[in-house]
Amino acid sequence: MSRAAAWMAGWLSLMVVIAVAGREATRELAVFQIMVMRSLIGLVMLYPLVHAAGGFAAMKTARWPQHALRNAVHYAAQYGWFVALTLIPLAQVVAIEFTMPIWTALLAVALLGERFNRWKALAVLLGLVGVALIVRPAASAISPGQLIALAAAVGFAVSVTLTKSLTRTDSAVQIMFWMLIVQSVLGLLPALAVWRWPSPTVWGWVLVIAFCGTFSHYCMSRALRHADATVVVPMDFLRVPLTALAGWLVYSERIDLLTVIGTALILGGNLLNLRRIDGGQARTR
Question: Does pTM top 0.70 for this prediction?
């Protein structure tokens, strides 16, 4: 458990930093270019871990179709996340992103045949009410940024489900290696279509994005290897207040009461669902 917590502390720190770096880089560069630069630079940064794991020969996998699917979905979700950073406050992006466990529960019912009991239904309801309070469709039109952030959350739910499956057979380094390979291939042509040479300042932000994007996922993969997803995911809830604090300190973004209440409902629904899962597992042991 302590090892999982340590890896999650790394994940949290890197994800807060990448939110700020992503917004700064998108002031000058298109999202497609940022993403392909992140992947290519990330491959260079990952090489020491690849070498330590046995080199490129050790990166071979029998599950490349699952890697390709996982990273195609993750690429689309990540693109949406970066775009949302430019359109709505950081706190809103992360709060909406935390509907991901709700969508994961619904996907598990639809695709894996898991049971949908009253506790899961209550968790989904709390999450949906929380989103409604954050986006406030009755008060004004739902912004494109909010819809994009919501779509990204669904994509991340699919990606996390596939990642957990991959950790059963492949190492964290293999998962990261194939993520960077697949996303480099997917993003190369779109990036070339909008390419412009970054300024020295933006080069710095891109390097930060590459480092955080590469090693945050490594931290998450290692955390999932040391503990169940039902233990790891609640640790990630700290990212909501931490990112809101970063938005306030760096961009003077205000956080209103309805956003706080909506976020609390989303996190409460997630915790309720996870607690019921843990309780059910304890009774079956």
Answer: yes
